[in-house]
Specification:
Elements (H helix, E strand, L loop, with lengths): L2 E4 L13 E6 L4 E5 L8 H10 L22
Antiparallel strand pairs: 1-2, 2-3
């Protein structure tokens, strides 16, 4: 999925900063990334992808902490 990132100054839900980048996907959804605090609206989905890759072994449950992210390659 390719996204077009734009600085639309949308407020960060975590820290309120307007130093954000909004990514618009052709599929019709958007994601927000904050350059000030590192918030990513897709962090939960990225953590789930990392877990399903088989690299992380942990207990099962709904209250799992996010996996520390490193750059992912498609």
């Amino acid at each position: 999925m390719d996204a077009e990132g734009r600085r639309e100054e949308a407020p960060c839900p975590e820290c309120g900063s307007r130093d954000t980048i909004t990514y618009h996907y052709v599929e019709g959804f958007t994601e927000v990334e904050c350059r000030a605090c590192g918030y990513r609206s897709d962090a939960d989905e990225l953590s789930a992808l990392q877990r399903f890759s088989g690299e992380v072994l942990e207990r099962s449950g709904d209250d799992l902490p996010p996996v520390p992210m490193r750059a992912m390659k498609a």
